[in-house]
Amino acid sequence: MVQGRVQVYTGNGKGKTTAAAGLAARALGHGWRVLWVRLLKPAALQGGELTSLSRLPGFELLDAGIGVIAGTASSEEVAASVQRVFAAARQRIASVAVDLVVFDEINGALRRNALPLAELLDLLDHRPPALEIVLTGRDAHPQVLLRADLVTEMAAIKHPLTQGIAARQGIEY
Question: Which end of the chain is more exposed for a tag (fewer CB within 10 A), N or C?
Fold first, then answer.
């Protein structure tokens, strides 16, 4: 049995979700079962990564469906959606029906108090031994970083958005 690891992709730069998607594609290519847990992003704004991955056998998406982009949902609504989807993910993990779980934007959910830190730490401490977990989002909590086996920080050096250039479909999403 291979020991699963905890990976964290954090930082203020572009590419955290895309890096996780690349890892998910690699895992699917080797026959792994991948669970993608999407938090803080509105259901209407689904990136090309998930569109592609969802076409592959072995991929499952749990989407909180309520995002913080454009700020239309209350913090209570966001928290309820995050906690609902996190609980569903824990059930899937407990069934040992997945090999890799990506919690996309979970660091932001923790920062916004949409998910209690203790909930995530308990999952990390009691996960199945072979399960690989990826956590994305800016400002990863220090306790999460301590439990991680791999931490990658994306740094924003230069980005077109700072020059007023809008995000492009197929490139930024």
Answer: N
